[in-house]
Amino acid sequence: MIYDQATIGDDQEIAELLKESTMPGNIEITFSRNPSFFNSVCVEGRSSDIIIGRDQRNKVKALGTRSVKTVFLNGQEMQMGYLSALRISPENRTMKNLIDGYAAIYKIHQENPADFYITSINAANDKARRILESDKFKLPKYRYIGDYISHAFRPGKCKTSKLYIIKQADAEDLDMLLQFIHRQKEHYPLLPNYSKKDFNDGLLKRLKLADISLCYRNNNLVGCMGLWDQQSYKQNILQSYSRSLSLIRPLINVVSILSLHPKLPSPGKVVNAATIAIPIVADKEVDIYDALLSTVLNRASEKDHDLLLCGSNAQDPLQVSCKKRKSVSFNNRIYIVGWEEIDTQIQKTLSEYFYLEMGGL
Prior knowledge:
about 350 residues; alpha+beta; 2 domains; globular
């Protein structure tokens, strides 16, 4: 297999490769990037390199993306690389093709190095974990730093807190919002250095200010949380259920009518979901997370979303709020990755806590 950087002309073949690559588990999901893979990677980094591998028939049969953005770590700006969309078609999944693919990414790293890299592996993907955690086969080093727990909620009418004033942001709030986010950098390792441009076609592509809830206490901004609809450039397609889940799905959906448990949609359909963005709270107070999450769930219901997705570090107090509510949850393992020796101080810091934007994964 021959690896090289992709061009916009490869979009259709990339889409076909993604279509045949599912996330394993009781619920198998395909991650699609229609209408253009190239137009979707801006949420992963301010610069992105898309690597493809072609087989002997010159068909795209492997994919990998390296994206880089500026984040805060220990109060300092650093260049974080993110390795994502790593795919090889089933008939080409050989160790040589895997090694050659990583070698192509490493070559780009040498030309334009990042300070460190982050990636995720579905906790149910045992085969990938065994290979990538092994420190063998001339692959980069993978060092586990923690779990990233994602929840799928069914939007519905939630009681809102009377302890805070919550309003939707507008253009006049943008400077204040960015200042608030940046003030939290010491408490949110890997928080991106967001700017105004990110709300258009950047790291927060098409996150509307009107869909960001701002929480105030004593006239001070103490938290924010956005409702991010990414379906115009990123889609989750539910491909299939395990046999046991398929058998009980009708019962689950009947029960969901009487509760707020998420319904399980029919296979083959795009999941009508929105994602929580910038869930940032001063001092990480659980009560503020609760108030914001209730508000965003209500807003998702008003906008007729079937699901609201929320993800964070397993150590994040946001998880306390999430676990109070009925949801379907998924687990990804997060790693710091490097071809050279990995900085032990960075690894130690991130093992204690890290912030990753779910919509940017």
